[in-house]
Write a structure and sequence with these properties.
β15 and β16 form a beta hairpin. The protein is built from no helices and 18 strands. The strands form 5 sheets. The protein has a 4-stranded antiparallel β-sheet with strand order 1-2-3-4, with no helix packed on it. With about 200 residues, it is an all-beta fold.
């Protein structure tokens, strides 16, 4: 294992992830820029492009596309080859904090604690869940009918989208963490890893 340091000047990087085939590293910044790096030659930047007007809060690759959620009150699906936007999700007055996808369904979380289920083919919102608490992250759980939500607090909530008036399960880590920063499921969803930390404030 080797360590490589890259200097991006004044850019404040918010995170990074590998592409589906592992050939690219995607990093995203507080001023809406996407940085793509060739993982075989990381000293050489593949592309830098401003794709949002303000901070990118979530970015991930999915096959030949990538998904973004931004504080500029939009989320997007992008073509990885030409970096052109395929679909825009307009959140109106809310900042996009998180986005996840399974099949044709997209789940988007905003800074006000709203969770929206969208059809990515037509950019149409199918339903909304209002937490009234600071939810900032949501992930599909097992299939397109179940999700897990978490954020600026120490509880996990599990929802069935066919009956979303209340969560079907939840548990708390309030004695250990102020918030849940990130989460990763095992392949069969039998367990998951999480990172706890202090609350964050969207910019």
């Amino acid at each position: 294992m080797s360590q490589i340091k890259l200097n991006f000047g004044v850019l404040e990087l918010m995170g990074c992830t590998f592409s589906s085939n592992g050939k690219l590293i995607g990093s995203f910044s507080s001023n809406g820029k996407l940085i793509l790096i060739n993982s075989m030659f990381p000293q050489k930047i593949h592309k830098i492009k401003k794709i949002h007007k303000s901070q990118i809060n979530r970015f991930f690759f999915k096959q030949n596309n990538f998904f973004t959620a931004s504080s500029d009150k939009t989320c997007g699906i992008w073509n990885l080859k030409n970096l052109k936007k395929i679909r825009t999700f307009n959140l109106k007055s809310e900042k996009g904090m998180d986005i996840d996808c399974i099949n044709e369904r997209v789940i988007i979380t905003t800074d006000s604690g709203n969770i929206g289920l969208w059809d990515q083919r037509i950019s149409h919102r199918l339903l909304s869940i209002n937490h009234s608490i600071p939810i900032q992250n949501t992930r599909f759980y097992k299939d397109s009918e179940k999700i897990m939500s978490y954020g600026n607090f120490s509880d996990f909530f599990f929802w069935d989208l066919r009956n979303f008036q209340k969560p079907f399960s939840f548990f708390s880590l309030k004695e250990k963490f102020d918030r849940i920063s990130s989460i990763c499921f095992s392949k069969d969803f039998s367990f998951f890893f999480f990172l706890g930390g202090a609350p964050r404030t969207p910019h």
